[in-house]
Amino acid sequence: MKLLIAAVGKARPSPEQQLQADYLKRLPWKITTKEIEDKSEPAQKRKAREGQLLLAACKGYGRFVALDESGKNLSSQEFADTLAAWQRQGESSFAFVIGGADGLDKTLTDAAHLVWSLGRVTWPHMLVRALLAEQLYRAHTLMSGHPYHRP
Length: 151
What we know:
Layout: E1 2-8, H1 15-26, E2 30-36, H2 43-57, E3 63-73, H3 76-88, E4 93-98, H4 106-111, E5 114-117, H5 125-144
Parallel strand pairs: 1-2, 1-4, 3-4, 3-5
Helix pairs in contact: 1-5, 3-5
C-alpha cells in the first residue's frame, strides 16, 4: 500500500512530530508526507488556495480522505474495515489531507471519498498528524490480526 499525508503547515521538531514518526516507521507501507504552505494569499483566500494545493497533492492516489470536524465519526475498526474494503476493490494508494487553522475548503471535502472526523473536539494540527499515524498503524494491526488493538 502507498500512502500520502498532505497537510497544511510545516512540522517543526516536537513531541507530536516524533510521535507521528514513531508510528509511521512501524508501518510496512510506503508513506510520503507533503506539507504545503502558501502565506502569499490574504487570509480570506488562503483556505481556497490551500484546498487547491492539497487536492493537487492527491493526484494519482486511488482514494483520498479529508480529515474534518464535519466528517463521519468512525471507530478504529470501521476505519480499518473501510481501508480493507477499498483494498478489496483494487485500490492500493490512499491520500489523507489535513487542513490549516481555518479548516478545509468545501471543494476539497466535496471531492473526498471519505470525510473523517477524529471527534467533536478541536485538535492542534500537529497532533492530528500523530493521531492519524496511530490510527493508520492500528488499522494495519487490525487488518493483519496483530493483538495491538483491544476493543
